[in-house]
Every structure is written in structure tokens, then in C-alpha cells.
Design goal:
284 residues; mainly alpha
Length: 284
């Protein structure tokens, strides 16, 4: 599978075909956002694309490379979890745009927001999704390398992080549904944001899980090649930066809505449980 309309260094490789597909989808997401004035199209593609990219690579090897197959299966599990979570919140229905895009439109104004859309929201985010799935390319380069201890460690850590963010999603879903029921019944809401369960140990356990599992996904490439440094590591780095920015935006909104949120920030780390930075007052 190769679109081949752009000549790039990865042309002719499966991950290059995935990059071509990424470019097409980024252009489509941008066009749909302009036409529909809904800027969550990348959000809807986010959980699907890594699985597609890994499948392209696995299919090129006729699904005969164990490491690539394992990476594809793990990406598939992650995709199922994220797609399900977005679907049950109505994320695939018309008018289901993420509230944070509305806030950014208000803060930046129409022109600056459209500049953000044509640079980061559509193409930038889609490029990051392709990047954090790209360690599968290193496994493709070494299909003969047998699975080893580092692979099984990476798989175990990936599943542990996936389990943690799944539990965090379920806890947040139960909390939000209970909050909606109490509001519909006219009951007072004494606790407007979640601070129990995994959210007792860090403010964003689902983000922590997502960052962690794509960090360890990179280890499969290390196991295949024996090399620790590779350009595909830009993926988990870029993803981490995106989540850090998303946390800053989300928490600025929460702090403005809920007076007690800053107290929660002061006593609970953002991402890494039990890790405190002296003098920060805001956790990790």
C-alpha cells in the first residue's frame, strides 16, 4: 500500500505507506473541520490510526513476524479501549466537539485559531500519532530477530499501563454519570471533580497510562535492533509534550470553574504518583 504522491526518505516502505495515509487523513481532518466547524476530527481518528499503521506493516510481512504481530495486537487493544471510551461519551456523534477547542477559539480569536488548526490541530497531531506508532518500523527492519526478555517486559508494562488507564476511565465515567444523575435530580454537588480511586494518587492517571505505554512501545524497536536511540523515539517525546500542554489547558479551565481545584493541584501530582518537586506547589 503506497500513495506515493510525496517523495520522502521512507517511500517504498510500509511505514512510508502509513505516512502517506497519515498525510491524506490529516488533510481530510482539516477539510472536515473547516466545513463542519467541528475540530474534533483528529480526536476521532486518534484511536484508529496507530492500529492501521501497524496493520500495514504487519501485512507487508504476511503477518509472519512475531514482534510486529505482538506490537500490532497491543496497539489494537489500546485502540479498542480508547474508541470505546470516546464512543460511549458520544464523541462520534455530530456536535460532539471537545469543549477545549471551544475554549481555545475564544482565547485566540478566529484568525489565530485557524492558523493553529492548519498547523497543529490537524496535520501536527496526525503526524504525532504516526510518530508514536513508528517503532513498528524498526521491528519491520529486523523481522528475523527473535522475541526476547525485553519484548516480554515491554509487553507486560504496556498491558499494565493499559489496565491503569482503563481503570481510570471507568472511575471517571462512573463519577461523571453519578454527577449527572444528581444534577438532574436537583441535588447539591459537594464534590464537582474526581479525587478518589486512582485520581487520589495523580490528577491524570489516564494520561499517565497513555504516556507510559507508548514509551514502552519504543522498547520493541530497541529489542529488534539492539539500538537505543532512533528517530522513532520522537513519537513518545512529542506525545508527552502534547499531553503536558493538554493538562495545562484542561486544568486552567477546571481551576476557573472550581475554587477547590487549586487545593487538589497543590497536594496531588499531575502524572507521577508520589513524586513531588520542592517548591513547585503543583506536583509533577
Amino acid at each position: 500500500m503506497e500513495f506515493g504522491f510525496i517523495d520522502h526518505p521512507l517511500a517504498g516502505t510500509p511505514i512510508g505507506a502509513a505516512l502517506d495515509l497519515c498525510i491524506v487523513l490529516a488533510a481530510l481532518a482539516w477539510l472536515l473541520s473547516v466545513v463542519t466547524h467541528d475540530y474534533s476530527w483528529v480526536d476521532r481518528l486518534w484511536s484508529i490510526c496507530p492500529v492501521l499503521y501497524c496493520l500495514i506493516v504487519a501485512a507487508s510481512l504476511d503477518f509472519e513476524a512475531p514482534r510486529v504481530n505482538l506490537m500490532t495486537a497491543l496497539a489494537g487493544l489500546w485502540g479498542v479501549r480508547l474508541t470505546f471510551n470516546l464512543a460511549r461519551k458520544g464523541g462520534y456523534w455530530p456536535g460532539s466537539e471537545d469543549y477545549r477547542w471551544t475554549v481555545l477559539r475564544q482565547r485566540h480569536g478566529p484568525l489565530r485559531f485557524q492558523l493553529l488548526n492548519i498547523t497543529f490541530i490537524a496535520p501536527g497531531q496526525m503526524a504525532i500519532v504516526w510518530l508514536f506508532a513508528s517503532p513498528v518500523h524498526r521491528a519491520w527492519l529486523h523481522p528475523e530477530a527473535a522475541l526476547g526478555l525485553l519484548d516480554w517486559l515491554a509487553a507486560a508494562l504496556f498491558l499494565a499501563f493499559l489496565a491503569a488507564e482503563t481503570v481510570a476511565d471507568e472511575q471517571m465515567w462512573a463519577f461523571q454519570q453519578g454527577k449527572k444523575r444528581r444534577m438532574a435530580a436537583g441535588e447539591a454537588i459537594s464534590r464537582p471533580f474526581l479525587t478518589s480511586g486512582l485520581y487520589r494518587y495523580c490528577r491524570h492517571p489516564n494520561y499517565a497510562g497513555d504516556i507510559g505505554l507508548w514509551w514502552v512501545f519504543y522498547l520493541f524497536g530497541v529489542a529488534a535492533s539492539g539500538e537505543w536511540v532512533h528517530w522513532s523515539g520522537l513519537g513518545f517525546i512529542a506525545l508527552t509534550l502534547v499531553f503536558v500542554g493538554s493538562i495545562a489547558l484542561t486544568e486552567s479551565i477546571s481551576a476557573a470553574k472550581y475554587p477547590d481545584y487549586r487545593a487538589y493541584q497543590a497536594k496531588t501530582p499531575a502524572l507521577i504518583p508520589f513524586l513531588r518537586f520542592a517548591g513547585s506547589g503543583r506536583g509533577s
